[in-house]
Amino acid sequence: MIRKNMIMEYSPTPMFVGSSTFALAFAGVLAIVVLSAILKCVKIVKQAECMVIERFGKYNRTLTAGINFIIPAMDRPRPIHQRIFRKDTDGNVNVMNINSATIDLREQVHHFAKVNVITKDNENIQITAGLFCQICDETKAVYEVASLPDALGELYMTSLRNVVGKLDLNECLASREKISSELSQVMDEATDKWGVKVNRLGIKDIAPTPK
Fold first, then answer.
1. In terms of domains, do 71 and 85 share one?
2. How far is CA 140 from CA 36, 119, 135, 143, in A?
3. pLDDT confidence of 1, banded at 50, 70, 90?
4. I need a labelling partner for 36 at 20 to 30 A (CA). Which of 22, 107, 150, 164 fits?
5. DSSP class of residue 168?
6. Considering the chain, what percentage of its residues have pLDDT values greater than 70?
7. Are 188 and 96 members of one domain?
């Protein structure tokens, strides 16, 4: 008698196939959620930059260059208003206003357009200048002034009028370095409250206003 071995092929039921597919999909979604949560905990700060972190709306700490870790549900970067100046191919200066989570600690150049100023002898002149400054205390720069670029611009305007108002036309035309030095000193003292160090203020051009 010859026995024939009968081989029965097993095929998974549709219910088992559906369960496996659901498990794989759930594992994939869970992995994405976990990875996203980990990435939100990590903050990478570049060299010469920092980031002010608030916990529940209150200052907590300052992140320095390198890899840092935060608690997403509790910690949040406090943005700062910055003004970026870029020159195009024609030499024109383009201005961009941004709110950035990181704070640039490098020396910055603020370009001031022509300003009409009245001298001591009631002559109108136009002055163009550039301010070289840098943030030395990031917490003051964030919390002591609402908009640092706007504050620097207003301070420059008022300080320039005060300094030039003490000089007559000839003195202004011949005393570019004197005006620059006095403006730098006045602005450096005033911006100390904002955590800003004014390194120098350069006068680009002084000319009588065309009549």
1. no
2. 33, 35, 9, 5
3. very low
4. 22
5. -
6. 91
7. yes
Q: Which residues contact 100 (CB under 8 A, 6 or more apart)?
A: 79, 80, 82
Is 6 part of any domain? no
CB 76 within 8 A of CB 53: yes
State CA 61 to chain mean position distance. 17
72 and 84, same domain (yes or no): no
Measured distance CA(50)–CA(181) in Å, rounded:
30
Q: 């320039």: which residue's tokens?
A: 160
Look at residue 155 and tell me if it is in a domain.
Answer: yes
Residues 89 and 69 in one domain: no
| Cβ partners under 8 Å of residue 93, min gap 6 | 85, 86, 87, 111
What residues contact 102, with CB distance under 8 A and at least 6 apart? 45, 46, 49, 50, 51, 77
- Reply yes or no on whether the pLDDT at 187 is more than 70: yes
Whose tokens are 């992140």? That residue is 63
Q: How many angstroms from the chain centroid is the CA of residue 208?
A: 36
What is the average per-residue pLDDT within 94-119?
Answer: 91
Domain span at 20 = 14-77
So what's the pLDDT on residue 18? 57
> Which pLDDT belongs to residue 31?
80
Classify each residue of 110-120 as buried b or exposed e, where b means 16 or more C-beta atoms within 10 Å of its C-beta: bebeeeebebe
Domain count, the chain: 2
Same domain, 194 and 142: yes
Is residue 7 in a domain?
no
